[in-house]
Design goal:
34% of the residues lie in helices and 20% in strands. It is built from 5 helices and 6 strands.
């Protein structure tokens, strides 16, 4: 199984007047950059069977960008046209339990490639839980970055970490 840890794209600043943290949307810049980053993922042959997302608005919007662009590329595999591959997973919200999420991933049947859309430092802690069986930060993901971890034969292997500017460069190749 390939696990893609995806940090949400650039969102409206925390503390913006009248917007609760849970409801902070992506900015236009964030949407554009994430869309370009997803084209970069497509350029290197990434496909997804499922997308799990934090319930926070900015993460859900990032997951929707992953799903929307697949319709014109190969970014998501689909058994039935029009079937959403996005599932909201509360543990992906800030402060979620990384070890509980790793157990949940292990139960994902018939999923060869899974994107997990969430937040920092939680995604770094999840990478640590998967790679080292300890809930500690293993990497740093900028907004819109993607980390690929392969799980095979009971081992976890860090395949790559691509920061957003590299993903955008891949899209422009």
């Amino acid at each position: 199984m390939l696990i893609y840890l995806v940090r949400h794209a650039i969102a409206v600043e925390r503390g913006t007047n009248g917007i609760d943290d849970h409801d902070r949307p992506l900015t236009e810049k964030g949407i554009g950059r994430m869309a370009q980053g997803v084209r970069g993922l497509d350029a290197i042959g990434v496909t997804l069977d499922a997308i799990w997302t934090s319930p926070l608005r900015r993460a859900r919007q990032t997951a929707e960008i992953l799903e929307t662009l697949k319709k014109s590329s190969r970014i998501c595999n689909e058994e039935a046209e029009g079937t959403s591959r996005i599932q909201t997973v509360d543990i992906l919200a800030p402060g979620g339990d990384a070890m509980a999420l790793t157990a949940m991933i292990e139960t994902a049947q018939h999923v060869n490639s899974l994107a997990l859309v969430g937040h920092e430092p939680d995604l770094s802690e999840l990478a640590g839980a998967i790679l080292f069986e300890k809930s500690q930060s293993a990497i740093l993901l900028k907004k819109g970055a993607v980390c690929c971890i392969e799980i095979a034969g009971g081992c976890a292997i860090l395949q790559w970490v691509l920061q957003p500017q590299v993903l955008r460069m891949l899209a422009n190749r």
